[in-house]
Amino acid sequence: QKEVEQNSGPLSVPEGAIASLNCTYSDRGSQSFFWYRQYSGKSPELIMSIYSNGDKEDGRFTAQLNKASQYVSLLIRDSQPSDSATYLCAAGDDKIIFGKGTRLHILP
Amino acid sequence: DTEVTQTPKHLVMGMTNKKSLKCEQHMGHRAMYWYKQKAKKPPELMFVYSYEKLSINESVPSRFSPECPNSSLLNLHLHALQPEDSALYLCASSHGGDSYEQYFGPGTRLTVT
Known about the structure:
The structure holds two protein chains of two kinds.
Chain A: E1 4-6, E2 11-14, E3 19-25, E4 32-38, E5 45-50, E6 54-58, E7 61-66, E8 71-76, E9 85-92, E10 96-98, E11 102-107
Parallel strand pairs in A: 2-11
Antiparallel strand pairs in A: 1-3, 3-8, 4-5, 4-9, 6-7, 7-8, 9-10, 9-11
Chain B: E1 4-7, E2 10-13, E3 18-25, E4 31-37, E5 44-50, E6 53-57, E7 64-70, E8 73-79, E9 87-94, E10 103-104, E11 108-112
């Protein structure tokens, strides 16, 4: 059974701080990894994709991948109240498996 | 442009009704997906179409019937649904080939009465 595990939270982070979100995956054959942001009542929005070991930065977001440890993380710098949402980690290729999501709450 | 559109936004249907959900993308993507999402749960894959052919059916009950008329359109035909089928139905598309980034539409909120 292929699984993606995330801490459900809520993760509370003060405004302006760094939010750190983590997930692990079970399928060593997975080649593609994604982070989606989902606001309540809305659809998931792709914010980061990462395919190789190391870091990938896009604005305030940094995704990190460690295939040896089967670990993916997302760092959000200078957290804003608008970052409050559920963050879904996903792994796979033609079929991606979603984690259950981590609820992030940025405290003003 | 990463827009996927879905209609209708909301749908209320009785258990004896037949209705259809529609999804459209104009990004030239060759893979399209249907997901079901219940409250506080992650999206759950239902069907995958790749190059207009059904490639994955996640053992979905036959009361859900997908259709891909062309590479830009994806339909989900609904018949004899149950109240527990009430959920947010999401369509997504990806480039296909070696690119698996999926872009989601806004979803259809379905209520079965």
